[in-house]
Design a protein that fits this description.
five-stranded parallel β-sheet, 180 residues, binds iron/sulfur cluster, 7 helices, globular, alpha/beta, Rossmann fold
Length: 180
Amino acid sequence: MTKKLLLHTCCAPCVSYSIEKIKEMGYSPAIYFFNPNIHPMEEYEKRRDELIEFSKKKNYELIIDNSGFDDWLKKTEAYAQEPERGARCAVCFDIRLRQTAKFAKENGYPYFSTSLTISPHKSYKVISEIGNKLAEEFSISYVDVDFKKNDGFKKSLEISKEYNLFRQNYCGCKYSIRKS
Ligand code: SF4
């Protein structure tokens, strides 16, 4: 039986290794791009469009959700002064994974996951807790993988180089630009 999985991602470099790992694990993934945190719009479009091109080349199924910008700003503004890896990031992960879980539930994906854990700058533990909490809330399964393990991050760099993928130099939100 096909194990349909919705794989949240923020960009082509992060998904490049993660999706192959998910396939190796026996799942049938579709990529889900939902990242209202990315600022400014020019950067958002650059990351999204690079992912569209990469998915076409690799024949990956891709779903783009361009919504949620006002909601993201409203829910994170109280945490503007937080450092990266602080409380704002947990809220940001929750917003993005919540929408992923909701979409998965409404569209017949029994599993969801995220490539966010491939980043050495993000807390695997926090992402894992949020993913598992949402799985319970939406009655679906969170596939809990620390993609950076077993040289996952290094492998994503190699694939990015091979495909000449655009790699951002800050996490994504306006607060992370100021601090980078
Ligand atoms: S630093 Fe990154 S993870 Fe944290 S709130 Fe900003 S975009 Fe989200």
